[in-house]
UniProtKB/TrEMBL annotation, chain A:
<dbReference type="InterPro" id="IPR029510">
    <property type="entry name" value="Ald_DH_CS_GLU"/>
</dbReference>
<dbReference type="GO" id="GO:0005759">
    <property type="term" value="C:mitochondrial matrix"/>
</dbReference>
<feature type="domain" description="Aldehyde dehydrogenase">
    <location>
        <begin position="65"/>
        <end position="527"/>
    </location>
</feature>
<keyword id="KW-0520">NAD</keyword>
<comment type="function">
    <text>Possesses activity on acetaldehyde and glycolaldehyde in vitro.</text>
</comment>
<dbReference type="InterPro" id="IPR016160">
    <property type="entry name" value="Ald_DH_CS_CYS"/>
</dbReference>
<feature type="active site">
    <location>
        <position position="304"/>
    </location>
</feature>
<dbReference type="GO" id="GO:0004029">
    <property type="term" value="F:aldehyde dehydrogenase (NAD+) activity"/>
</dbReference>
<dbReference type="InterPro" id="IPR016162">
    <property type="entry name" value="Ald_DH_N"/>
</dbReference>
Automatic annotation (TrEMBL), chain B:
<comment type="similarity">
    <text>Belongs to the aldehyde dehydrogenase family.</text>
</comment>
<dbReference type="InterPro" id="IPR016161">
    <property type="entry name" value="Ald_DH/histidinol_DH"/>
</dbReference>
<protein>
    <recommendedName>
        <fullName>aldehyde dehydrogenase (NAD(+))</fullName>
        <ecNumber>1.2.1.3</ecNumber>
    </recommendedName>
</protein>
<keyword id="KW-0520">NAD</keyword>
<dbReference type="GO" id="GO:0005759">
    <property type="term" value="C:mitochondrial matrix"/>
</dbReference>
<feature type="domain" description="Aldehyde dehydrogenase">
    <location>
        <begin position="66"/>
        <end position="528"/>
    </location>
</feature>
<comment type="function">
    <text>Possesses activity on acetaldehyde and glycolaldehyde in vitro.</text>
</comment>
<dbReference type="GO" id="GO:0004029">
    <property type="term" value="F:aldehyde dehydrogenase (NAD+) activity"/>
</dbReference>
<dbReference type="InterPro" id="IPR015590">
    <property type="entry name" value="Aldehyde_DH_dom"/>
</dbReference>
Length: 537, 538
C-alpha cells in the first residue's frame, strides 16, 4: 500500500503540467528565500546538519563489514561545502578478490541458487519493508553524499527503491524456461539458469536507484553479486547492505566494495571468476569495461552509458507544459541524468515564446542547501563535475550561443551552479554534442519533422527522447524514427519498474528494468533427450 | 512437405543408433566403400573425383551486384583433397567493407527492407528456401569441394537444413511482438521491438552455409540489413546463395557478401562506426579481438559463438554400444571440425575398458576418403594450417603419455586427410584434454563418480555443449543442471533443430543463436510512454 501510494505520488507529480517532480509549488514562502540564484545568500547560509549518523564505512564482504586489505581509506565529501563526511575503506584488487571468493562460494556451494525462488523472493520483500522503515535515514544519507534535494530522495527515490525490489521479488518465482518443438523424435526444453557471480559497477547520480536496477534482477534470478559503488557516493549502499542482511540475505550473496574505477572497478571488469558485469557510467569508461571483459574471460557485459537526448517541441504542443517538462527534463537532479533532455529542439513558430518562458522558469529555479524544504536544485556532486560544467558554459559563450540565464557558479562555497539556458544553439557546437551532465539547457530551432528527425538522430548517443505534440500522426512517426531506447511523449523521466531502459548506439548495450532485465542475469541452456514412441511431436 | 521430409530424415539419422553417416556406410559395405575404408589404405591417393558443379560466382556481392574488390586483388580458394586451386576469389578489404556498409546503410535507412511489411519480407525468405532446395545438388557439391566435408552430408543434411532454417525465420518475421506494459500511474506504456540496423556477420569455414543461415535468417526476419564476411577457406557457397537471394526478390543492398581475411575485412567490419551489431562465429581468441574492436569503436553489441571442449559423459548404466557410436559421431562428425565436438569423452570406470575397446574398433572402421565418393564418412581437414595443428596435438598426446589406441598419422600423401585417432588414459591436465583440437582426435578419460565428473567436466574455460549418457532419470536431471554448458544432449548428440537455441557459457561465447532467443540479437527495445487522461483502467 505504502509503496503504491508513493509511486502514484511520483506519477502524479510527473503528470501535472505545472510542477513535475520538484516540490516547489508546496511551500512558496520557503522557496522564495532560496529562489533566485543571483541571491547568494542561499548557499552562504548555515549548512543544515543532516539528521543521520554515518555508521557503515567499511567494505561489506561475506556478510561482514571489514577494512580494506591495505587498510587504506578515502574521504567522501559533502558537495555543499567540499568538507569530509567520513573516511571510507578503499577497496582495491585484493578486496575485489576477497569479495569474489565469497560470492563464488555463495553461488557454487549455495545457499543462494539452491534456495527456492519463493524463499529468495521473501528475503527481497522483507528488504523492501526495511527500506520503508528506514526511509528518512536512507534519504538523508543519499542527499548528504550526493547533494540532491532531500525531498527528492525521501519522497521519490527511496520509495522507488522499495518499489523496484518488490517488482523483482515478484519475478523470482516466475522465471520460466520453455519446452520447444523439435523437428524429430526429441524432447527439447530450455532452462533459464542464473549466470553466477555478477560484477556491478554503479554511478553516483542515483546511487540507490542504480543499486536497485542492478541488484534486483541479479538476486531475483539467483545470482550472487560483487557491487562497486562510485567513490563520490559510497555511503547509502553500505547502509542498505546492512538492511539486506537484516532481511535474511545469506552471507556472500551481496558484497559491496567502495573504491575507484581504475583499481577496484578494473579488477571487477577483468576478473576471471566473474561471470557477468553490468556498468552504468560514461561512454568512455564503458568502452574500457567492455575491453577489459574482452581481454579477460569474455564475461557478458551490459552497459548503460551517456546520452544527449533530444526534447522535441512541435508547433502544436502545449507550450507552457512543454516549457515546464523541458525544464524538468534537463535540470532534474542538477542536470546529472544520463537521459537528460539536453538538446531542446523547438519549432520555429513557437521558438521565441518558448525561449522566453524557459528562461523565466530557469531564473525561478530554487537553488540552495538540499536539506532545505522547497529547494529544487542542490550542488553538483564534486569539484571535477563542477569544473567540467563551467568549462562547457564558457564553450557555449565562446561558440556564439546566446546565454539567456545563469552561466556561473552559485554562491561561493560548495559546487552550486546557476541554472543556465542557452538559445540559438547550433548542432555543431560542443554544448550540443557532448554530455554536459549539469544544469545547462541548450535550445535549438527547427522547421520541419524530416529535419528534426535527422538532427535528433545525428548523435553517437541514443538513450532517450522527449516528444511534445498533440498530433497522433506526429507522435507515431517520431516514436518510430527516433533511434533511442525510451521515447516519452508529452511526459519525461517516467521510470516505472516495468519500463525497460537502455540505449541505442553508444548509449549502451542491453536493457534494465522490466522483463527485459532478466535476460542480463540468465544463461539459456537447451536440454535435448531422445523420445521413444512419442504420443505427439 | 519436402522440407518436413528432409528435416525428419535428418532427425532420424541423428536419433538412430548409427547416427548421420554411418547408415550409408552400412549400406555400402559390399561395394566401393570397402576400398577406401581403412585409413591405412591408399584411398586418398586415388584419382580425385571431379565435382559436378561450376564455380560461377567469385566476386563480392555489394548492393545487388557482383563486383571486383576495390584493390582488384584476389586470393585462391583451395581444394582440401589436393591443396590445388579451385578458383580465385575477390579479396575484400576495408574499402570493400566501406562500400558494403554504405549499401546496407542505405537499404536500411532509406528502405526498402525495414519499410516493407513483415509479410513481404517473409515471402522473400520463403522463396529463397525454395530456391535452395531447387539448387541443393550444386550447393552441396560446392560446399563439399570448398570445405572437404562429405557430399552426402552436405546434400542430405546441411542444405536441407539451410532451407529449413530460412522457413523457420520466415515464419518469425510477422510474429515479432512488442509488449504493452503495466505502469505505476496514469501512463500508457508500450515497447517496440525494432531492427537494430546494419548487422555485421562473420562466419566460419566448418559449416559455411549453416552458419550463414543461423546469422542471416534472424537478421533479415527482424528487418535488418547485412554485411557478411565469409571465411577465406570457404568463400564459394555464400556467393551462390547470395545470387539465389536476389532471384528470390531481396532488394539490392539488404545482403552484402564480402570474401576476405579476418585481419583486414573482418577487423574493418568489427570496428566500423556505421555497423550497428556484430555476430561472430569462430575461435575464442578471435572472439576476444572482435569484442575489443567493438569496444574501441562504437560499442556495437556483439554475439559470439566460440570454441568448446565439450564433455561427453558415459555413465555406468548407459547403453554402451549406443554411447560408443554417438561418442564417435560427437567427435568425428565433420572431420572433428565442430565447435561443439564431444572432445572429452568421460567414461565410468566400470565400463571404461569395454568402451575404449569398442571406440577404437569403431574408429578403425571409419571410412576416410574423397568426400565425393559414396559411403565416405570422413574427408580431409579444411586446410594445411588446420592439418598441421591437429598433427601437432596428436604428437602432444603421445608425448604426454596418453595411450594412442589407433590412428595418429596422415591418410595418404596428398591433401589434408588425417587418420581417425583415439587416445585413452587421457588426464585432465594434458593439452589434448584442455585445448580445442578441431580434428578427428578422440580423448577418452576415466571417472569414478558423479560428483567428480561434474567437477572435471566444468573445469574448463569453455562451456558450449555436453553429452550425457545414462538411463537414470535422476542422473540425467542432476547432471543437466550442474553442467555449465549451453546445450546438454541426453542420450543423443548434435541435435540442431531450428527451434533449439545454441550458444556458450563462459568463454564459449555470448548470446544464443537459433530459436526464439536469436531474435533478441537483432532487435532493439524501445519503450514508448504517453500520459493517459481519464483512463478507463490502468
Amino acid at each position: 500500500m505504502a509503496s503504491r501510494r508513493v509511486s502514484s505520488l511520483l506519477s502524479r507529480s510527473l503528470m501535472s503540467s505545472s510542477s513535475p517532480f520538484s516540490l516547489r509549488g508546496k511551500d512558496p514562502l520557503m522557496n522564495r528565500g532560496a529562489r533566485r540564484y543571483s541571491n547568494l545568500a542561499a548557499s552562504l547560509e548555515d549548512t543544515i546538519t543532516p539528521p543521520v549518523k554515518v555508521e557503515q564505512t567499511q567494505l561489506l564482504i561475506n556478510g561482514k563489514f571489514v577494512d580494506s586489505a591495505s587498510g587504506k581509506t578515502f574521504p567522501t565529501l559533502d558537495p555543499r561545502t567540499g568538507e569530509v563526511i567520513a573516511q571510507v575503506a578503499e577497496g582495491d584488487v585484493e578486496d575485489v578478490n576477497r569479495a569474489v571468493v565469497a560470492a563464488r562460494k555463495a553461488f557454487d556451494e549455495g545457499p543462494w541458487p539452491r534456495m527456492t525462488a519463493y524463499e529468495r523472493s521473501k528475503i527481497l520483500f522483507r528488504f523492501a519493508d526495511l527500506i520503508e522503515k528506514h526511509n528518512d535515514e536512507i534519504a538523508a544519507l543519499e542527499t548528504w553524499d550526493n547533494g540532491k534535494p532531500y525531498e527528492q530522495s525521501a519522497k521519490i527515490e527511496v520509495p522507488m527503491l522499495a518499489r523496484v525490489f518488490r517488482y523483482y521479488a515478484g519475478w523470482a518465482d516466475k522465471i520460466h524456461g520453455m519446452t520447444v518443438p523439435g523437428d524429430g523424435s526429441h524432447h527439447v526444453q530450455t532452462l533459464h539458469e542464473p549466470i553466477g557471480v555478477a560484477g556491478q559497477i554503479i554511478p553516483w547520480n542515483f546511487p540507490l536507484l542504480m543499486l536497485s536496477w542492478k541488484l534486483g534482477p541479479a538476486l531475483a534470478c539467483g545470482n550472487t553479486v560483487v557491487l562497486k559503488t562510485a567513490e563520490q557516493t559510497p555511503l547509502s549502499a553500505l547502509l542498505v547492505g546492512r538492511l539486506l542482511h537484516e532481511a535474511g540475505l545469506p552471507e556472500g550473496v551481496v558484497n559491496i566494495v567502495s573504491g575507484f574505477g581504475p583499481t577496484a572497478g578494473a579488477a571487477i571488469a577483468s576478473h576471471m571468476d566473474i561471470d557477468k558485469v553490468a556498468f552504468t557510467g560514461s561512454t568512455d569508461v564503458g568502452k574500457i569495461i567492455l575491453e577489459l571483459a574482452s581481454k579477460s574471460n569474455l564475461k557478458a557485459v551490459t552497459l548503460e552509458l551517456g546520452g544527449k537526448s533530444p526534447f522535441i517541441v512541435c508547433e502544436d504542443a502545449d507550450v507552457d507544459q512543454a516549457v515546464e517538462m523541458a525544464h524538468f527534463a534537463l535540470f532534474f537532479n542538477q542536470g546529472q541524468c544520463c537521459c537528460a533532455g539536453s538538446r531542446t529542439f523547438v519549432h520555429e513558430r513557437v521558438y521565441d515564446e518558448f525561449v522566453e518562458k524557459a528562461k523565466a522558469r530557469a531564473i525561478n529555479r530554487a537553488v540552495g542547501d538540499p536539506f532545505k524544504s522547497g529547494i529544487e536544485q542542490g550542488p553538483q556532486v564534486d569539484s571535477e563535475q563542477f569544473e567540467k560544467i563551467l568549462k562547457y558554459i564558457r564553450h557555449g559563450v565562446d561558440s556564439g550561443a546566446t546565454l539567456q540565464a545563469g552561466g556561473d557558479r552559485h554562491g561561493s562555497k560548495g559546487y552550486y551552479i546557476q541554472p543556465t539556458v542557452f538559445s540559438d544553439v547550433k548542432d555543431d557546437m560542443l554544448i550540443a554534442k557532448d554530455e554536459i551532465f549539469g544544469p545547462v539547457q541548450t535550445i535549438l530551432k527547427f522547421k520541419n519533422l524530416d529535419e528534426v528527425i535527422a538532427r535528433a538522430n545525428n548523435s553517437r548517443y541514443g538513450l532517450a527522447a522527449g516528444v511534445f505534440t498533440q498530433n497522433l500522426d506526429t507522435a507515431n512517426r517520431l516514436m518510430r524514427a527516433l533511434r533511442v531506447g525510451s521515447v516519452w511523449i508529452n511526459c519525461f523521466d517516467v521510470f516505472d519498474a516495468t519500463i525497460p531502459f537502455g540505449g541505442y548506439k553508444m548509449s549502451g548495450i542491453g536493457r534494465e528494468k522490466g522483463i527485459y532485465s532478466l535476460n542480463n542475469y540468465l544463461q539459456v541452456k537447451a536440454v535435448v533427450t531422445s523420445i521413444k514412441n512419442p504420443a505427439w511431436l | 512437405m519436402a522440407a518436413r521430409r528432409v528435416s525428419s530424415l535428418l532427425s532420424r539419422s541423428f536419433s538412430a543408433s548409427s547416427p548421420f553417416l554411418s547408415r550409408s556406410q552400412g549400406r555400402n559395405l559390399n561395394n566401393g566403400s570397402r576400398i577406401v575404408r581403412r585409413f591405412g589404405t591408399s584411398s586418398a591417393a586415388e584419382e580425385v573425383i571431379s565435382p559436378s558443379v561450376q564455380v560461377s560466382y567469385t566476386k563480392l556481392l555489394i548492393d545487388g551486384n557482383f563486383v571486383d574488390a576495390a584493390s582488384g586483388k584476389t586470393f585462391p580458394t583451395l581444394d582440401p583433397r589436393t591443396g590445388e586451386v579451385i578458383a580465385h576469389v575477390a579479396e575484400g578489404d576495408a574499402e570493400d567493407i566501406n562500400r558494403a556498409v554504405k549499401a546496407a546503410r542505405k537499404a536500411f535507412d532509406e528502405g526498402p527492407w525495414p519499410k516493407m511489411t513483415a509479410y513481404e519480407r517473409s515471402r522473400v525468405m520463403l522463396r529463397f528456401a525454395d530456391l535452395v532446395e531447387k539448387h541443393s545438388e550444386e550447393l552441396a557439391a560446392l560446399e563439399s569441394w570448398d570445405n572437404g566435408k562429405t557430399y552426402e552430408q552436405a546434400l542430405t543434411a546441411e542444405i536441407p537444413m539451410v532451407a529449413r532454417l530460412f522457413r523457420y525465420y520466415a515464419g518469425w518475421a510477422d510474429k515479432i511482438h512488442g509488449l504493452t506494459v503495466p505502469a505505476d500511474g496514469n501512463y500508457h506504456v508500450q515497447t517496440l521491438h525494432e531492427p537494430i540496423g546494419v548487422a555485421g556477420q562473420i562466419i566460419p569455414w566448418n559449416f559455411p552455409l549453416l552458419m550463414f543461415a543461423w546469422k542471416v535468417g534472424p537478421a533479415l526476419a527482424c528487418g535488418n540489413t547485412i554485411v557478411l564476411k565469409t571465411a577465406e577457406q570457404t568463400p564459394l557457397t555464400a556467393f551462390y546463395v547470395g545470387k539465389l537471394f536476389l532471384e528470390a526478390g531481396l532488394p539490392p543492398g539488404v545482403l552484402n557478401i564480402v570474401s576476405g581475411f579476418g585481419a583486414t575485412a573482418g577487423a574493418s567490419l568489427a570496428s566500423h562506426m556505421d555497423v550497428d551489431k556484430l555476430a561472430f562465429t569462430g575461435s575464442t581468441d578471435t572472439g576476444k579481438v572482435i569484442l575489443g574492436l567493438a569496444a574501441n569503436s562504437n560499442l556495437k553489441p556483439v554475439t559470439l559463438e566460440l570454441g568448446g571442449k565439450s564433455p561427453f559423459i558415459v555413465f555406468e548404466d548407459a547403453d554402451i554400444d549406443k554411447a560408443v557410436e554417438l561418442a564417435h559421431f560427437a567427435l568425428f562428425f565433420n572431420q572433428g571440425q565442430c565447435c561443439c565436438a564431444g572432445s572429452r569423452t568421460y567414461v565410468h570406470e566400470k565400463v571404461y575398458d569395454e568402451f575404449v575397446e569398442k571406440a577404437k574398433a569403431r574408429a578403425l572402421k571409419r571410412v576416410v576418403g574423397d568426400p565425393f565418393k559414396k559411403g565416405i564418412e570422413q574427408g580431409p581437414q579444411v586446410d594445411s594450417k588446420q592439418f598441421e595443428k591437429v598433427m601437432k596435438y596428436i604428437r602432444s598426446g603421445v608425448e604426454s603419455n596418453a595411450t594412442l589406441e589407433c590412428g595418429g598419422g596422415q591418410v595418404g600423401d596428398r591433401g589434408y586427410f588425417i587418420q581417425p585417432t583415439v587416445f585413452s588414459n587421457v588426464k585432465d591436465d594434458m593439452l589434448i584434454a584442455q585445448d580445442e583440437i578441431f580434428g578427428p582426435v578422440q580423448s577418452i578419460l576415466k571417472f569414478s563418480d558423479v560428483d567428480e565428473v561434474i567437477k572435471r567436466a566444468n573445469d574448463t574455460r569453455y562451456g558450449l555443449a555436453a553429452g550425457v549418457f545414462t538411463k537414470s532419470l535422476d542422473t540425467a536431471n542432476r547432471v543437466s543442471r550442474a553442467l555449465k554448458a549451453g546445450t546438454v544432449w541426453v542420450n543423443c548428440f548434435d541435435v540442431f533443430d531450428a527451434a533449439i537455441p545454441f550458444g556458450g557459457y563462459k568463454m564459449s561465447g555470448n548470446g544464443r543463436e537459433k530459436g526464439i532467443y536469436s531474435l533478441n540479437n537483432y532487435l532493439q527495445v524501445k519503450a514508448v510512454v504517453t500520459p493517459l487522461n481519464n483512463p478507463a483502467w490502468i
